[in-house]
Amino acid sequence: MASVDEDVFNEKLNELVNRRSGNSLNYRRDKYVRLLEKIKLCRSKTAAVPKNSLDFRIYNKLKVVKTNEGERIATNPSSPKLKSLMLVPIEEMYDILLNCHMNLGHAGRIRMMSQIKKKYKNITAQIISLFISLCTTCKIKRQNYSKMQPYKNNRAEKQNIVQESLFAHPELYSRGQVDLLYVNNVEDKEYKFLMIYRNLATRFTHLNVLKQFNANEATEKLLEIFLVFGAPNVLQSKNGITFVELIVKQIRYICPEIRIVASETNFNENVYNGRNNKDILKLLNDWLNKTQSVKWYEGVKFVQHSLNTAFNEVLCHSPSEMVFGMNPWKGLTSMLPENVYRDLSTEDDLKIFLDQYTIEVQNQNQLNPVESSLLPVS
Ligand SMILES: [Zn+2]
User: Fold this and answer.
1) Is the CA virtual torsion 250, 252, 257, 260 positive or negative?
2) CATH homologous superfamily for 156-324?
3) Ligand 1 midpoint to CA 106 (Å)
4) What sign results for the dihedral spanned by CA atoms 118, 174, 308, 285?
5) How many CA atoms lie within 13 A of 304 on its CB side?
6) Cβ proximity of 225 and 178 under 8 Å
7) How far is the CA of 2 from the centre of ligand 1 (A)?
8) 317 vs 359: CA distance, rounded Å
9) What's the CA-to-centroid distance between 73 and ligand 1, angstroms?
10) I need a surface site. Which of 81, 210, 221, 363 has the fewest CB within 10 A?
11) Transmembrane stretches, by residue range (predicted)?
């Protein structure tokens, strides 16, 4: 099911268009077709439109172009340097916006606008904002942030301003938090710090081990994450604004195509609901006890996996499902019972099992002709 209800969007769009003044370029299909025919007529060589008439001024600015979907009205720029932009009837806007919103991964209004305005003249920022406000997936992300409470400290007033602006601008929901923790482990002298990076929209957590507490090493690890998973608009940290500013500056220097701003905000421990920094250290400790290992950094990938595959009550999905649409596939474990996969080790073993399985299913269907006749024909 699409994230935006088409009927609701069209109803609200009609209300919006009706409220607009007469010089708006948003037309319903019947009026659009009439205008298109009139432009064609006026621009035809045989038409005699007085040059000082209103018709001439309007039709001089517009033309008719052929597209895969049929004829459409487009702007007729006065200079060849300017690009001709298309006007579409309001009935076609839903499909255009849905395509753009999905292709850009539920992008906000600024990214959508920059994409849309390359091609269309009459899909305005207001129409794009209306579309995004109706997207159920984007709504879940917004609700998720509205539940986060800032720290109650002497910066509370400032935090509240930030919190309010979070609600006002959807672009600020694209946010990550990076925290560096000292890991007190006498057995290991090489790795002393754990870097926790969380995407606050998807709750996806990345855990990395560091040798030193410094911005250089943290920046390297963050870039590895950002170049695969994407970077947020805003970065924050419990280690303080100075630390984040250093990281943001280094990212700008090493990788200029990524641009992030530093924020003073950070969120209350309760927000992570059993997955805060202390809980993560406890999970690592549990892993050490369970495996009798002394190398804490070897357990980091397993703790990261358990955090990202755990069901999140706010999102109603696990973080992995939010990012990839599913939890990580575990090979044969994900499709076969244990008593079958434990005996399989080569591709030939798997082929033999699949051949046997296919024959068994066919035999079963022959034994139950009535039941099998009820199955849909493939
Ligand atoms: Zn969306």
Assistant:
1) positive
2) Ribonuclease H-like superfamily/Ribonuclease H (3.30.420.10)
3) 4
4) positive
5) 18
6) no
7) 10
8) 37
9) 29
10) 81
11) none
pLDDT in tens, the chain (378 residues): 568 899 999 999 988 888 776 667 888 899 899 888 888 887 776 666 666 666 676 677 888 999 888 899 998 888 888 889 999 999 999 999 999 988 888 888 888 888 898 899 999 888 998 999 898 888 877 766 555 444 334 444 444 444 444 546 778 888 999 999 988 776 667 888 999 999 988 889 999 999 989 999 999 999 999 999 999 999 999 999 999 999 999 999 999 999 999 998 877 666 666 678 888 999 999 999 999 888 899 999 999 999 999 988 777 889 999 898 889 999 988 888 888 888 899 999 999 988 888 887 777 666 555 444 444 443
Q: What is the dihedral of CA 231, 236, 239, 240, to 10 degrees?
A: 130
Straight-line distance from the first to the last Cα atom of the chain, in angstroms, rounded to the nearest whole number: 24
ipTM over 0.95: yes
Instruction: Decide if 86 contacts 74 (C-beta within 8 A).
Output: yes
3-state class of 378 per DSSP?
Answer: coil
Beta bridge partners of 261: 234
Q: What gap in Å lies between CA 212 and CA 42, rounded to an integer?
A: 73
How far away, in angstroms, is 140 Cα from ligand 1 center? 9
